[in-house]
Amino acid sequence: xxxxGTVTGAVPRPGLRERKKQRTRDALVRAALELFATRGYxxxxxxxxxxxxxxxxxxxxxxxxxxxxxxxxxxRLAESHVVEAVRGRPPGEAPLETLRRAVLDSWDDIHATxxxxxxxxxxxxxxxxxxxxxxxxxxxxRRATELEEELARIIAEREGxxxxxxxxxxVLVAAFGGVIRVxxxxxxxxxxxxxxxxxxxxxxxLDRLGPALAENWRTDxxxxxxxxx
Amino acid sequence: xxxxGTVTGAVPRPGLRERKKQRTRDALVRAALELFATRGYxxxxxxxxxxxxxxxxxxxxxxxxxxxxxxxxxxRLAESHVVEAVRGRPPGEAPLETLRRAVLDSWDDIHATxxxxxxxxxxxxxxxxxxxxxxxxxxxxRRATELEEELARIIAEREGxxxxxxxxxxVLVAAFGGVIRVxxxxxxxxxxxxxxxxxxxxxxxLDRLGPALAENWRTDxxxxxxxxx
DNA sequence: TGTCAAGTGTCAGCGGCTGTCACTAGCCTC
DNA sequence: GAGGCTAGTGACAGCCGCTGACACTTGACA
Lengths: 229, 229
Description:
- The structure is a homodimer of 229-residue chains.
- Chain A is mainly α and 229 residues long.
- Helices cover 70% and strands 0% of the residues of chain A.
- Chain A contains eleven helices and no strands.
- Chains A and B meet through helix 6, helix 8, helix 9, helix 10 and helix 11 of A and helix 6, helix 8, helix 9, helix 10 and helix 11 of B.
- Chain A binds a DNA duplex (30 and 30 nucleotides) through helix 1 and helix 3.
C-alpha cells in the first residue's frame, strides 16, 4: 500500500489523478462496447457513449482519437501478448513453428487480459459487430497488417536476415496472418466461443497450410514441391 | 425493345441520357483521383471534387456512396479481370498454380483497363496515397478480403469441395492474398512502376511461398513436412 | 496554503453524408 | 412535334464525427 507520491517500489501506485483517469477510460471503454453490442456501431453516437460514461463528448475525444479507437482498445492489449510470445520463443526454432506456438500458447494470457476489462461474452459480441460493420472490419484488417509487419521484423531479426532483401519473413507472416484471420472469422461465427475451441480451430487450420499449397488436392497427399517456376 | 436511335448490335448504343451519366461519372472519377494525387485524400473535400467536375455535392453522392468509393472505382474494374482469369483456367490444374497464373496473366488486361480511364502514372500516385492514408488502406484491405472470399468460392467449386467443410480453399487463398499484398506494397514503394516489374516481383515472391513455410531457413532447402502437430 | 498544470465542460465550426423538394431535360407516346 | 412522364439534378436543411479555443475545477507539490 503505497501513498500517492511515493518514491520507492518498481511500480509505484499511481496518484489519485492517474487512477481517476484510468477509471474514466475504463468506463468509456465499457460503455462503448456495451452500446456497440446492443445498438450496433453506427447506431451508437459518441454522445451516447459519453453520456453513458458521464463525461462530455469532448472528453471522450481526449481519451480516444476516434470512435473506432475505443472499439479496438481491448484487442490492442491482446495483441501485445502475441508479440511478446514470439519474442520469447527459443532461437533456432523453425519460423512457422515459432509463430504457431506463440499464438497458440498466448491464448490463456489473452483471455485473462480481456476478462480484466470486460466479460468474454461481451468481447465476442463486439467482435461480431466488428466483422459485420464494414468500417470496423476495414480498421481491423489494417491493424492486422501492422501487426504482421512487426512480426515480420521480429522473425527477420531472429533469423539474422535483412527484411528488405529476403522475401521469406514477409511472405511467411502474410500467409500465417491470412490463416489466422480466416480462423478468427469462423470462430466468431460459430457456436463454441470457448478459448479451447479457438485454439483447436487455429491449430487445425495452421496444419492445413502446407497441404493447401500442395500440387494436387485430389490425391489428398501433400507432394511437397509446389510451383517450381 | 430497342431504344430510340438504336438499330443494330448485341450491345445497343446507350441513349443520350446514359452517355451523359457516364461522362459525369468519369469526370468525377478523374477529378477526384487528380485531386487526391496532388492534395492528398483528406486534403480534398467532396465539394472540391464536385466543383472540379462541375456538379453539385449532392450529385457526387448520387454517383458514389462515399468519398472512399470513388477512390476504388478503377481498382474494382481491375479486380474483375483476375476473377475472370481464375474462372478461365483449365480444370485439373493445381489450385495454387491456378491463382498464380491467373494473376500473372491478367496484368496486360488490367493495364489496358486502367489506361482507358486514367493514365497509369496517375493510378500509381493514387495507389501511394491509398497506402499512406490509414482510412484508405483499411478500405483497400477490406476489399481485398472480399475478393479473397470470392476466389475461395471459385477454387472450392473447381475442386468440387464444400467451402465450409474443407479449410484448404480459404487457407490457400489467404496465404496467396497475403503474398500479393506484400508485393503490391513493395511495387508501389519502388522505382520501377512498369507492368513487367510488378509481374516479376509477384512471380518471385509467390515462388518463395513454399520455402518460407519450410522447416528451417538456414539449410535453404525446403524439407517438405511442416509443423506436424 | 498558495501556485501550477492536468483534466474537463462549453461553445463554435468544418466536413462527410442524407432526406426532401422543386425543377430541368431526355425519353416515349400519340 | 406536342405533351406527359420520370431520371437526374441543384438547393437547402440537418445529423454526426471530430477539432480548436478558452475558461473553470481540482489534484499535485512546494
